[in-house]
Design a protein that fits this description.
Structural class: mainly alpha
Number of helices: 4
Number of strands: 0
Radius of gyration: 15 Å
Strand content: under 5%
Helix content: over 70%
Order of helices and strands: HHHH
Largest sheet: none
Length: 113
């Protein structure tokens, strides 16, 4: 059950992240702030369901902890990109980090575990 909540929360977060980016480009500030707050709420669902799944693992290995840390890295990059774009700062390096972290978390989650 928590795996489904975790997956759905991740997918909704990525969709809302893209929506917030698009709304920011069109100048709809109020809508962007609402979407941004919704992504922040989804971060809590992601972290909560991830912790519950970690606690339910029978054989805890370092790969599970690495996946959790990379997942937090993805969340932090999403948040930093949204905040820095709002402030008008450069985000090129953050986009690169987000891409690396997403590929890494997908690899660990689906190939290594």
């Amino acid at each position: 059950m928590f795996g489904q909540i975790h997956f759905i929360s991740w997918m909704l977060t990525l969709v809302l992240f893209i929506a917030a980016l698009l709304l920011g480009k069109t100048g709809q500030v109020t809508s962007k702030k609402i979407i941004h707050m919704m992504t922040r709420l989804l971060y809590l669902f992601i972290i909560f369901s991830g912790v519950i799944m970690l606690l339910r693992v029978e054989t805890f290995t370092a790969m599970y902890m690495l996946k959790a840390l990379v997942g937090i890295w993805v969340i932090s990059m999403i948040e930093m990109i949204l905040v820095r774009i709002e402030k008008g700062r450069r985000v090129r390096i953050l986009w690169g980090q987000l891409a690396i972290a997403l590929v890494l978390v997908m690899y660990i989650g689906y190939a290594a575990l």
